[in-house]
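Encode chain A's predicted structure.
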Amino acid sequence: MDKELHAEASKFLSYILRHKPETIGLTLDAEGWADMDALIRLSKVKGHQFDKDLIRTIVEDSAKKRFTLSPDGLHIRAAQGHSSQQVDIRYEEKTPPALLYHGTATRFLAYILGEGLKPQSRQYVHLSGDENTAVQVGLRHGRPVVLKIQALAMHEQGFTFFQADNGVWLTRNVPFSYIQQ
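Encoded structure for chain A:
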């Protein structure tokens, strides 16, 4: 498949499964799962041509592993990053490593160091297990800066952490006192 078409299809799936399923009339269950046949049928009405093979290819080829297929292959969901109020995935709480990382742009630094990290329009703050991934995330927003998060210290103070299917660490917020530049 053409890389540009593949990327366009992946972005459309992200938009629908993370943010606006209602734009095509799709309903997600509380765990974020969409019926694959319904997704294909409703996407087609909006001019997007999908089939199960294309969706499986997008899921398998995604370096960021943004999507998860159900074991029976009949359902798909975004692994994390939801802003849709239809979704409230019950992630299993996990103990984080001592440090996690957050990539952002330098223009957001003053706000973050004053207010901490907040999920903004999403349900969770997203954290990486390694600095390289955080740099890549920061590059999407401008000149990157990587913040070190004292995750284990937060956890020991009662903050909860989760890990999505794709390895991204999630927490509700990060107070500025746990952030190192």
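The two ends are 41 Å apart (CA to CA).
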